[in-house]
Structure prediction request, 173 residues.
Amino acid sequence: MNSASEVKATSPLTYGLGLVLAAGGLMGLFLVANARDGAIALHGYLFVAFCTLGVFWMIKRHYDGADPIAREEGGVLYNDGVVRAGCIASLFWGVVGFLAGLVIALQLAYPALNLDLPWTNFGRLRPVHTSAVIFAFGGNVLLATSFHVVQRTCKARLAGDWAPWFVFWGYQL
Prediction:
């Protein structure tokens, strides 16, 4: 933690992000208050949680002097934190998707594994497997690769400090 004299100046873009996060949190509260369905209320709670975490993250970054996600390589400060997070998310979604595929393959070979539960049958789990592998795993791999390659090809850091994270977390949701 830095002393008050070492705190970075806050840019107008940071204030704008703070306002967007505050508006998102209020929208989440509005969704929760007016929800007629449990799914809408859940998404309202997610909005509130992620916007609150975003505000706390901004405050923490403001009072931290060093940028923990940047590393120097050839004089350029690359943003490798978001690339690392993309690789971890790719690994997670790959395991989820491939396990779903394994379960449905075993259900086809051994129908007793269906357990007579309606939400574990082949017709319900096949879209989970397909979406997790194609969109979650494959999309995260492409996103992380793009973030890595663009920086090295252009020999420049990704635009903004929070914009790549916004893209990353937006894709996760």
Observations:
- The CA atoms of residues 69 and 80 lie 6 Å apart.
- The radius of gyration is 21 Å.
